[in-house]
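During the no-cost extension, the postdoctoral fellow (Dr. R.K.) reprocessed legacy sequence entries with the updated structure-token encoder. One reprocessed record is reproduced below for audit purposes.
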Amino acid sequence: MKTILVPIDGSESSLNALKLAIQLASLANATIYVITVHPPLASPNVTRYISADDLRDYYNEEGQKVLKLAEPLLAESGAAATMEVKVGQVAETILECAHNWQCDHIVMGTRGLGNVKSLLLGSVATKVLTNTEIPVTVVK
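Re-encoded structure tokens follow.
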């Protein structure tokens, strides 16, 4: 294992996934990529009312708030990680990042902070599990 992708959204299960990924990375001397994905605002016409720069700044600010939650866990462990804010459909963006960065493993939470709750797994985790050949570990 060389690279582990950990999508986080600030939920307890996503931070638990990061904790596990840190342990796995230390055992396998792997690199960790931590991302947070902000879904685009509902209407594509939003840029008629908000400038593209303001919208990009908003996504980045909100994403940085989530990534800040990962910093103490990474600092305490000494693990090096690359952290990025992404904008797009959440599951699709996770899969795209995993492919583009040639990740060997995805470690993610069972359920995020979304409004819709599935019975067993969140819809994002389910989509990722069913649409990748990369091993996925789902953490509660």
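Residues 25 and 31 are 6 Å apart (CA to CA). The chain has one domain: 3-139. The remaining legacy entries will be reprocessed before the final report is submitted.
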